[in-house]
Amino acid sequence: MADALEPKQLNTYFALMEAVSLLQHAVSQQLRAEGDLSYVQFELLARLADSAGPLTMTELADGVVYSRSGLTHQAGLLEKAGLVTRGPSADDQRATVVGITDAGRELVAKVLPGHIDAVRRLLFAPLSTSDLDALGGIMTRVRDHMRAEPPRSVSTRRSSKGSGVL
Amino acid sequence: MADALEPKQLNTYFALMEAVSLLQHAVSQQLRAEGDLSYVQFELLARLADSAGPLTMTELADGVVYSRSGLTHQAGLLEKAGLVTRGPSADDQRATVVGITDAGRELVAKVLPGHIDAVRRLLFAPLSTSDLDALGGIMTRVRDHMRAEPPRSVSTRRSSKGSGVL
DNA sequence: TATTGTTATACTCTATAACTATA
DNA sequence: TATAGTTATAGAGTATAACAATA
Fold first, then answer.
1. What domains are defined for chain B?
2. Using a CB-CB distance cutoff of 8 angstroms, which residues of chain A are in contact with residue B62?
3. Concatenated DSSP letters of A26-67
4. Which of A79, B7, B96, B142 has CA atoms 20 to 30 A from the CA of B13?
């Protein structure tokens, strides 16, 4: 126990992980039942729905998926379901641009109310307004910190000689 | 968009989910590399190491795993690896009690420093002391709220006639 | 030479249903 | 009749490596 986290840190860490795990599980069930979507698929659709225009695979991956093949797989499923389209990019001939279809937008719209409901009921119900502000500030900062630091997401490909973990 | 979360809530929700996803991914890599453990397996071992004595499968499951068969599977893997033992319970003949072995404790001890390091670097580095207090309080409250509310975890078995999602 | 994306493949995790045994 | 746990099995998600094509 030489270099343990302070107990307060440890408790915070475990509470965070367990709470989000429970939340993840609940919203995943909701998305599966109401839209036959995994959480990752929902995230991808939501990003596309929110975006001004189509996104490249790499742009779409950032922060959502941690391997290129994983994204290709998911995008393939969404395309087969008629929720997104894939096509060549004009700017960069290597890139694939992904756009959301009307059916995709409709599905997001169909699933969103129940999703919002679950998040409100499970996450926000026990929180005050100042809790919300605090949590928002903290998690935004943490997210940005982790995005900036290595280990980075998909965009940097691992070098072939295993660099170890982190 | 009739009943959307307030933008502040939505941003908070997404920041929380993305930050924890990144954290989960990073610590999973660390645990896999240094101890050949999944995060769930680490959690199970850590609980057992922290517990005064052996736990039943149901006690062990709570908050960690969402299906009984999943836990049986993971416990089987840990047992095969010599990290835990399983045996009949004295109190309740139906129950299985799970205990951690010396090898299990050693593995936790081996893996923990790197784990703590990653959590500090990724989660706590950008947070102040008051952030830590706030986050701890908030996430503890959220976790307890979700534990209390349905959808409950494993302990309640689903009725055979599909009760829908939540 | 580095980057974008796909393919093929293998593996892990998870969940459902059917089952045994005990309370 | 309800609960604890296991088994068998199937499906979904993810990652690695090898590959083709473009920058």
1. 7-148 (1.10.10.10)
2. none
3. HHHHHHHHHHS--HHHHHHHHHHHHSSS-EEHHHHHTTT-S-
4. A79
